[in-house]
Write a structure and sequence with these properties.
- It is a single chain.
- The protein is mainly alpha-helical.
- It has one domain.
- It is 28% helix and 0% strand.
- The chain contains three helices and no strands.
- The longest helix is centred in the C-terminal third of the chain and has 11 residues.
- The protein is elongated and about 55 Å long.
- The chain starts with 28 loop residues before the first helix and ends with a helix.
Length: 94
Amino acid sequence: MLNLPMSIAPLLPKDYPKLVYKYRDWSNDFHKKTLINMELFLASSSSFNDPIDCKIPIAYYKLGDDAKLPLEYFEGYVARHYPKYTEIECQLKV
């Protein structure tokens, strides 16, 4: 295994805690339902209050040649997510 600092080293199953605590208000019906039904709520990234959270930029230049996707894929991605861009602006964004 790589000798990485703990802050960026991946956690292995042996490192997982046996218990994780999350305090809930028993008078809240949503909290009761979550606990009784053993549910886990995961919010969508669009509901986060940080607009940059979960927006992972594509580092195309870091990929090896065997892993690179066709340029058309990225041009299509930009065109779909930035519909007001002209064809030239889309190419410049890629």
